[in-house]
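Ex. 9. Protein: Ornithine carbamoyltransferase.
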Amino acid sequence: MTSVFKGRSFLAEKDFTKEELQYLIDFSQHLKGMKANNQPHRYLDGKNIALLFEKNSTRTRAAFTVAAVDLGAHPEFLGANDIQLGTKESVEDTAKVFGRMFDGIEFRGFSQQVVEDLANYSGVPVWNGLTDEWHPTQMIADFLTIQENFGELTGLTIAYCGDGRNNVANSLLVTSAILGVNIHVVTPKALQPEATIIAQAQAYAKESGAKILVTDDVDQGVLGADVVYTDVWVSMGEEEKFQERIEQLLPYQVNQSLMKKTQNDQVIFMHCLPAFHDDQTTYGKKAAQAYGISEMEVTDEVFRSKYARQFDQAENRLHSIKAIMAVTAGDLFIPKV
Ligand code: CP
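Predicted structure tokens for Ornithine carbamoyltransferase:
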């Protein structure tokens, strides 16, 4: 299985089969065990990894950095103000230069086209650390977290409550459909996923048996859910939309009442983070002052409840990013898991 990954980029979930995505989830779990047992796993020994960040990050940057070091590679962080990408130098030229120096490139930014061009022109594996369209490394961590909780994925139901058009919603819709996990996108009509993405997910669901529901009805959307998932109401670069989004999404806030509507005692709560669950941040204070709310997509009560798995998800970013880098850029024997 590992040879099918060698030299490939990880740009969007649709580029991988159900078996390949499942392998990445299982291999992430295997690497998590190796780290816990202090077993060396230097599959990228001596290699150099470029970390390109146009947007801020806590988890993705930390996970790529620690994963690279654990794998024996050197990570080099290159922020938006450090290099000429897209300002003084084209993506094509930058990719050609980096392809001659680095063994793999991570990119976090706005445009999916940029990450695809980096892959096309660099000749080395490129990993999508988030674009406006997709967040694929997040998905391997998320489905690992779900698998850890339920033992398997097939037939489970995720209810995603919130902005149905952001990258996490897109990725959850398509990844769930590929993996055979039922996915409900619970969102106002104005924020429902693009028709092309729903159609793409429906095509995968036909193969996998996953059931897809896009609804503005919270009661219908969360009933029977095994996982309630939410994300920030305003994505990076959309900050002027705060007021509008609060008005649209307040009925979809994940609170105790919504969790109970699942009618599932085993339900878990997930969030890719960062989360606006209190007013302890600059953003939180601004929202509290300007709009009179101290919690947005999830209440502090749910965030700190028995349902909460968001910090397991955050940790799993490390193990899953490590798996993705190892199988695509590594050249050592990787055991079957
Ligand atoms: N979930 C996620 O991508 O976190 P960061 O923005 O902190 O990288």
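Check your answer against this statement. The chain has two domains: 2-135+316-329, 157-225+227-263+268-306.
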